[in-house]
Design brief:
Blueprint lengths: L1 H15 L3 E5 L5 E4 L1 H7 L9 H4 L2 H15 L5 E9 L5 E12 L5 E10 L1 H15 L4 E6 L4 E4 L1 H7 L3 H4 L10 H15 L5 E9 L5 E12 L6 E9 L1 H51 L4 H31 L7 E4 H11 L1 H7 L2 E5 L5 E4 L1 H18 L3 E8 L4 E7 L29 H11 L3 E7 L3 E7 L1
Helix pairs in contact: 9-10, 10-14, 11-13, 13-14
Length: about 475
């Protein structure tokens, strides 16, 4: 009576269990299965042969390895996740728990298997992995104190950390110090229920100490276990966008500066051209209408020639100035000494007349690497100024470095007041209206040197010394 009652209870438990239950022979045959097994596998009882037949090939070796340990009594039971191939060839994931029943000879009589269908939880877990871990943007969850609870691989990778390393930190420790106050203010706003979601730009400090610009989207939620606030964060890298914005801003600033320079340049160019043409016209008008005597006529003709020469110089300088930015340059190796001699030949008469002594403070066999025509124009302007305002001596200095070449033109002429040391490089600036020249010489030098990737400057003391220096 008691055995029958026990058998009924066993049968009821076996067949009505919420999970699959089976008795399996030592060679893998299904000896007895409940309805749940049939539901999980899609087979009828009489269609089920062995567990090996419906086990996924990639999982079979692992399962058989545990069975051997069970038979050898190395373990009392085992539990694994594995896959069955259902009757319709679809895959079902299961949690398999197996124990053995032994006979009086300590040999396995059969195995008792419990099988739980975990396909849905596997799908959910896989989808979570796709959405969270394999996301193309950074995702993270932090608590109300800023401690990271979970981060995905993308977020850790962008910051240069491993996930385990990042989980030991909080958002405060990896936020750029200038952005931290704003972050804390927003956190307090969340905690005070001022908003449930927030989006803003910020900078994180990467593991290598460089900065990462991001757009941060945060939504407030609550932990299922503690019911304390947690924050779900999506972090999108916008470093390239910020760099592009900076580049655009710099380009815009440069364009504005260029437009201002062109406006300034065009005004003075037009003024100087008009002034020379007007003067020439007036002198010619006097010669035609007033019929001056020979001496006066010669005076007016000399003025016309003088103004024509100035006009010619101005037009030449304007042409050079406008060509500098667009002209491609090609460097070559040449003798600086020979280049300066060719320039001095142009001023031979003035040099002899003023008895100017030229000194070369460098090896005259020294060669330099540069665009020869550009350097000629630069030295021509500087040497001509020194000759014009020098007393007795002009010294040329040369110093070659590993990456740059420095040249200095030193004279003992009138000198330039310090307040004009920067203005002399502006287009059409003249220290005195009495001075001849176009007012473009030094601005041309500056523009040419910028084209060469260099700079120009000066040091001067009134009535003692002037040194124009430049490097490229």
């Amino acid at each position: 009576m008691q055995n029958k009652e026990y058998d009924k209870r066993y049968e009821s438990i076996f067949h009505n269990a919420p999970h699959g239950m089976a008795i399996v022979s030592i060679d893998g045959k299904w000896l007895e299965v409940n309805d749940k097994i049939c539901q999980i596998t899609g087979y009828n009882r009489d269609e089920l042969t062995t567990f090996q037949e419906i086990t996924h090939p990639d999982d079979l070796k692992k399962d058989l390895g545990f069975l051997k340990k069970l038979i050898d009594r190395e373990i009392d039971s085992y539990k694994i996740e594995k896959r069955y191939i259902k009757k319709d060839n679809s895959i079902v994931w299961i949690n398999l728990s197996v124990s053995a029943v032994f006979d009086e000879n300590n040999c396995v009589k059969y195995f008792i298997s419990q099988i739980e269908d975990i396909t849905n939880s596997k799908i959910t877990k896989y989808r979570k992995q796709i959405l969270f871990d394999d996301s193309l943007i950074g995702l993270a969850i932090c608590d109300e104190f800023g401690k990271w609870i979970e981060v995905n691989s993308r977020f850790a990778q962008k910051l240069g950390y491993k996930k385990a390393e990042l989980l030991q930190t909080d958002f405060q420790s990896i936020t750029y110090k200038e952005d931290l106050d704003e972050d804390i203010k927003i956190l307090n706003g969340f905690l005070n229920n001022e908003f449930e979601t927030k989006k803003w730009k910020k900078r994180y400090v990467k593991k290598d100490s460089s900065l990462l610009w991001c757009v941060l989207n945060v939504r407030k939620s609550y932990d299922l276990e503690t019911n304390r606030p947690i924050f779900i964060c999506s972090i999108q890298n916008i470093n390239d966008i910020i760099l592009l914005e900076d580049q655009i801003n710099k380009t815009n600033d440069q364009l504005i500066k260029t437009v201002e320079e062109l406006t300034h340049f065009n005004y003075f160019a037009s003024h100087d051209l008009k002034e020379n043409i007007r003067t020439i016209y007036n002198y010619c008008k006097i010669l035609k209408e007033e019929s001056p005597d020979k001496e006066e006529a010669e005076f007016y003709l000399n003025r016309v020639l003088e103004r024509s020469s100035q006009l010619n110089d101005l037009i030449n300088d304007l042409l050079i100035y406008t060509k500098i930015s667009s002209k491609k340059i090609k460097n070559e190796r040449f003798s600086l000494y020979n280049l300066i001699l060719s320039i001095n030949e142009e001023f031979k008469g003035e040099i002899l007349k003023k008895n100017i002594d030229f000194e070369y403070n460098f090896d005259q066999n020294e060669h330099i690497w540069c665009h020869k025509t550009t350097l000629y124009h630069i030295l021509f302007n500087l040497i001509s100024n020194s000759i014009k305002y020098s007393s007795t001596k002009i010294t040329i200095h040369l110093k070659k470095g590993k990456f740059k070449t420095l040249i200095k033109i030193e004279d003992n002429g009138e000198g330039i007041e310090k307040i004009y040391h920067k203005k002399v490089f502006e287009p059409f600036f003249r220290l005195s209206t009495k001075m001849n020249g176009t007012g473009l010489g030094l601005s041309l030098c500056k523009k040419m040197l910028e084209k060469l990737g260099g700079q120009i400057g000066l040091r001067s003391q009134i009535n003692e010394q002037t040194i124009f220096w430049f490097y490229f």
